[in-house]
Batch of 2 targets.
Target 1
Amino acid sequence: MDNTSDFKDFYGSLQLIYDSALINIVSRLNIIRKYKTANGYRDPIENIKTRLKSPESMKKKLISKGLEPVSENIPGNINDAAGARVICTYVDDVYEVANTLAAQKDLNVITIKDYIKTPKTSGYRSYHMIIEVPIYIGEECHNVRAELQIRTLSMDFWASLEHKIHYKHDIPSRAIIESELRRCADEVASVEMNFITIRDMINAAQKEDER
Ligand code: 0O2
C-alpha cells in the first residue's frame, strides 16, 4: 500500500502540479453543477472522485512502456497520472457534462474514448477523455494532462464489481463470471435507456399538471 510519503518521494514537485490540475477540473465541474441548479435544472452529477495514480501502479506503467520508472518520465508519456471519475445520474448527462467541458476554450481535449457507444469486450462502459488544462504555479504555466472517466451510477457499480476479478488469479469459475458480467452489462445498458424514457414521461406529466 502506498502512503503519503511514498507519493511525495516519487512525484516530488509534480505532485503539486497534478493535485492543482485536479482542483481545477473539479472546480470546472462544480461550476457546471451550480449553473444548472441556479437555472432550475437538475444537477447532472452525483459525485466526483479524484486520484493521483499510486507510485506502484505508475512505476509498472512506465516500465510497460519501456521507460525508466521515475517521475521525470511522466509528462509527455503518461496521460493518467491525475484522474477524475465523474458519476452522472443518466446516460445523457454523461454526454452533456463531457460536451460542456469540451466547449471551454482554455481546456484542450486530447483524446476521447467512448466506451458507452462502443463497450469493451468485457462489457465495460464509460466515457473517457484525456484533457489538458493550464495550471499556474507561481508565474509558470504548466499544461497538465488528466484522465476523466465519466459514467453513470450503474456503469460505475458494474466497473467496481468487474474490477475485483482483475486481481484474482486462478478462479475456476472465471469464464462463467465474465460471461455473467457481460450479460449484466447489456441488461444495465437496456435498463438505463428505460430510465430515460420514464424520466421524460414523468417530466411531461409534471409539465401537463403545471398548465
Ligand atoms: P486504474 O488503476 O483504474 O487507474 P492507457 O491508460 O491509455 O495506457 P488504456 O487501457 O488504453 O490504457 O486506457 P483506457 O482504455 O482509457 O482505460 C483506462 C482506465 O479505464 C483503466 O485504468 C481503468 O480504470 C478503466 N478501465 C478500462 N477498461 C476497463 C475494464 O474492462 N474494466 C474496468 N473495471 N475498468 C476498466 P488502469 O490504468 O487500467 O487502472
Target 2
Amino acid sequence: MQSCPAFIDGEWREITGVDKTPVYNPSRGDVIAEVPLCTKEHVDLAVESAAAAFPKWRDTPPVERARLFFRYRQLVEENFDKICESVSREHGKTLAEARGSAYRGIENIEYACAAPTLLMGDTLENLARNVDCETVLQPLGVCVGITPFNFPAMVPMWMFPLALVCGNTFVLKPSEKVPLTALLIVDLLHKAGLPKGVLNVVPGGRESVDALLTHPKVKAISFVGSTPVAKHIFETGTRHGKRVQANGGAKNYVVVMPDADVDRTVEALSTAAFGCAGERCMAGSTAITVGKAADNVLPSLVKAARAIKVGPTDVKSQPDMGPVITAQHRDRVLSLVESGEKEGGKIIADGRGVKIKDAPNGFYVAPTIVDLVQDSMTIAREEVFGPVLNVMRADDVDQAIEMANKSSYGNGAAIFTNSGKAAREFKNRVKAGMVGINVGVPATMAMFPFTGWDESFYGDLHIQGKEGVQFYTQQKVVTTRWFGDNVGDVWKK
Ligand code: NAD
C-alpha cells in the first residue's frame, strides 16, 4: 500500500486518527492506498502556512519565480514516465492517454514560465499635465485548488503553476480517488526549490473542501468537478467573499453532416466518445447525425467501437481503453444505459457484458452506442461520464443546433462537415464555450481559456490563459503627480 501523506509547511506529514477512504487500481479492483480524510484542523495548518509564506513569495521577483518553474519543467520531463505510470495506475488511463494529458499539464508550466511578460501592466505618461498613470498586477494571497478524479496530473497543473508564478501561495485538495500523482508532482516542485509553505497539499473529501471554502485567509478558489459540486463551491465560496472559478460537468454534442468525411469522422468520433473511457469533460457524448449522415457513419462507427480492445492499463501490451474509475461508477454507467434502452433507445454496440479474463475484478464497461435517443430520456439529460455514445437524428443543421442548444451544459460542441456555411452557422449559434470544426475534442490548450458556459462553469474568469492570469491577480491603478516648477520645460527647448 502506498502512503498518502499531507504536505504542509514544506514537510510530508502522515495523517493519523481520521477516517480513510480507499484508492483503487481500477484495472484490477485492488486497493493501492488509503487517503486520510483531513479535517478543518489540517486545513487550518495548511492555510496558515500558505499565509505565512505569502509576503516573501510575493516579493520574490517574477523572473526568479519563473526560473523556478523552468527547473520544475525540467524535473517533470525527467520524471515523465513515473508520472504517467502513476496516472495510469490510479486512474486507469492507457499510458498513451496518460502521456497526452501529462503533456497538457506541462504546457501549463510552460505558459506559467512567461510570468514576467504576463504580469506586465499598462502605463500612460501625462495622463494629465505632470501626472502619469500605470496599472500593476498584484497577487491575491492564499489560493486553493480542488480537483476531480479524471485528470490526476493535468488539472492540478491547470492551477498551481500559474497561481504561484503570479505570486500567490496555494493549497491543493486533490481528488480522494486519485491523490497519488498529485503528491508526486508536488514533491518535484519542492525539489525544484520552492520555499516551504508556498504550496501545500491536504488530502481529503468534503470536510476539507468546506473548511477551505470558508477559511477567512483563503482569497480565491479554483475548482474542477461535477456540476452540483461546482455550484456548491461557487455559492459557498462567493458567500464567504472569495473569488471563485468553478468548472462543472458536461454533455457535449458532435454534429455529423451528410457531407462529412466518413473515415476521419468515425475515427475522431470514436476517440471523442471512448478515449479515456469517456471520462473527459470534453468527451463527445452525443452524436447528432444530420440526414443521410447516420447511414454514412453508423455502420463504421459500430465496427470501430467493437474493435476497441479493453483491458488493464498496468501491463506492457497496452489496450486501447482502460476501466472506469470505481465499481460504483461502472454500475451507474450501466444503469444509465439500461434506462436508455427502457426509455426507447436502441443499443447498437453493447459493452455491458464485457469480461476481462486477466483482470476479473477491474471496473470495465466496453464501448457502447445507444441509437434513437430522444431529448426526454434520462441518458440524454444526465452526464454519463463513461464510454457511452448517444445518437440522435436531425433533418438539417438548424435542427441539430437547436437540439444541442437544449442542453443545460455548455462545455464543448463539434461539427464534422465539408461545408463552410454549415461550419460557420454552427460556430456562431451553438451554445457552448469550446467549439470544434472537424475536431472531436476541442479542449483548449494552456494559452487559451477553458471556456465552459452555462452549467459547465460558475464564475467570471476561466481557468488557463490570460483569464487565468487575471483570476490569480488583482489590478492596482497608480496615479502619480510629479511636482517641480520647471517640469515640462525640457520639451520646450
Ligand atoms: P466531483 O464533483 O465528485 O469531485 C470533484 C472534487 O470535489 C473532489 O476533489 C471531491 O473531493 C470534491 N467534492 C465532491 N463532493 C463534494 C461535496 N459534496 N462537497 C465538497 N466537495 C466535494 O467530480 P469527480 O467525479 O471527481 O470528477 C468528474 C466530474 O468532473 C465530471 O462531472 C466532469 O465533467 C467534471 N470535469 C469537468 C471539467 C471541466 O473543465 N469542466 C474537467 C474535468 C472534469
